[in-house]
Amino acid sequence: MRPAKPRFVQLLGRAQRALQRWIEARPESWEGISAAQVGLLFVLRSRGDAAVGEIALELGVAPAAVTNLSKRMQAAGMVERVADARDARLTRLRMTGAGGAASERAGEVLVELNARLSEGFTLEELQTVARWLAQAAALEPGTARD
Predict the structure, then answer these.
(1) What span, in angstroms and rounded, lies between the C-alpha atoms of 55 and 53?
(2) pLDDT tier at 4 (50, 70, 90 boundaries)?
(3) Bridge partners of residue 49, in order along the sequence
(4) How far apart are CA 102 and CA 41, in angstroms?
(5) What is the distance between the alpha carbons of residues 145 and 41, in angstroms, rounded to a whole number?
(6) CB neighbours of residue 25 within 10 Å
(7) pTM (2 decimals)?
């Protein structure tokens, strides 16, 4: 008898809920910041500054979602709006000191989480998982395979 095929959608949903519970059990690391805000801060941490459209593309969300999120983050003092050096019509977002501190705290928790998730797997296995997750993240609604 052949083993049953993995139920990827169910496993992915369960994994997402377990990750969320794990993160929520460490409120000191996420005080006053949401997972979506952490994602935006990580983009800014890697780029220095970025336009709303660039952030939206990297996070896989609509630009309007980034605009709304950034307004709340600006009010909380985590990001600031700055003029683009080359195009005065374009506004970019840049992390503030408070945003950097929040990003640093969240990053420490995620280092621990990534270490736990990687335990017992070879680098090759982890690369396969990463490739599979990237493929899942790239799915477009309404596209069918021939």
Answers:
(1) 5
(2) confident
(3) 94
(4) 8
(5) 36
(6) 8
(7) 0.75
